[in-house]
């Protein structure tokens, strides 16, 4: 399969290594200096770029009739617009805030724990995420997905990075050099605390998940998520 990399930074390069290892070719390596994208030899596009350019990258692939997956975070206020664009152009699109298998299992554990915690009183929920200091967005896309999983099952209505109201989940975003991505959810009461935590040891899990998603989506039409790819949840 021929893969276009829309973004050739830390993730683009990790994806390239895994894609080549799985006998794929890289048809395009786009960076901030790439003027236009030539998709003529591309089967699937993978966008891991920056928040301000993700939407136009995704739409370019849809315009070219190329299935596109995106792992770029920090652009989700435009998610519905992209979905409408994809549907009206009969395109193929998959977004995941986190492509790693471990985190996608963690998303399901988070939802199950939140269902249990909704049945008891006296606990406050907090999410902590830690990433490297080059990260442009806060909170992480993964932390937002975790918060949404809790909101779905509890009385919480939204999340905040600031002082939380009683119906808000506080997300603390820490930036520490070289950390690939750590997420922890804690339920605190006066009596005890319950925590679940996922720690990425490298970017390999994100990159492998993205290549697996690209292989899966190649000949499909529509809007998908990692739940479709991994058949979990
Ligand atoms: N969903 C997931 O599993 C994961 C998501 N991410 C997310 O992926 C994104 C990328 O992360 P990371 O690789 O670490 O970031 P980097 O900063 O290392 O890479 C970003 C890349 O995007 C390129 N870029 C900038 N503008 C454009 C443009 N207009 N068109 C095409 N490419 C462009 C940059 O070009 P240049 O080199 O010229 O600056 C660079 O190559 C982030 O949003 C991050 O949060 C990260 C890990 C996992
Ligand atoms: O920027 C990163 O590095 C990461 N971003 C994603 C996010 O915002 O959740 C996924 C992963 O945690 C690494």
Automatic annotation (TrEMBL):
Binding site for NAD(+): 71-73, 96-99
Keyword set includes Cytoplasm: yes
Entry EC number(s): 1.17.1.8
Enzyme class, first EC level, given as a word: oxidoreductase
Domain Dihydrodipicolinate reductase C-terminal span(s) in chain numbering: 102-230
Quaternary structure (record): Homotetramer.
Family listed: Belongs to the DapB family.
Protein name: 4-hydroxy-tetrahydrodipicolinate reductase
Source organism of this protein record: Winogradskyella marincola
Gene name of the record: dapB
């Amino acid at each position: 399969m021929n893969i276009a990399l829309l973004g050739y930074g830390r993730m683009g390069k990790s994806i390239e290594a895994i894609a080549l290892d799985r006998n794929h070719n890289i048809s395009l390596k786009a960076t901030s200096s790439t003027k236009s994208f030539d998709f003529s030899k591309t089967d699937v596009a993978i966008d891991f770029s920056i928040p301000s350019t993700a939407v136009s990258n995704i739409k370019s692939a849809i315009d070219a009739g190329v299935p596109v997956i995106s792992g770029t975070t920090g652009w989700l206020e435009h998610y519905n617009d992209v979905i409408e664009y994809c549907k009206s152009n009969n395109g193929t699109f998959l977004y995941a805030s986190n492509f790693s298998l471990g985190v996608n299992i963690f998303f399901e554990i988070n939802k199950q724990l939140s269902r249990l915690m909704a049945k008891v009183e006296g606990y406050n929920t907090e999410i902590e995420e830690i990433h490297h200091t080059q990260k442009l967005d806060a909170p992480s896309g993964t932390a937002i997905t975790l918060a949404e999983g809790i909101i779905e099952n509890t009385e919480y209505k939204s999340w905040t990075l600031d002082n939380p109201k009683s119906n808000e989940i506080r997300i603390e975003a820490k930036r520490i050099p070289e950390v690939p991505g750590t997420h922890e959810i804690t339920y605190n009461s006066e009596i005890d605390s319950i925590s679940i935590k996922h720690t990425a040891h490298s970017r390999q899990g994100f990159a492998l998940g993205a290549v697996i998603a690209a292989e899966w989506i190649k000949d499909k039409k529509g809007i998908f998520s990692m739940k479709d790819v991994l058949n979990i949840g």
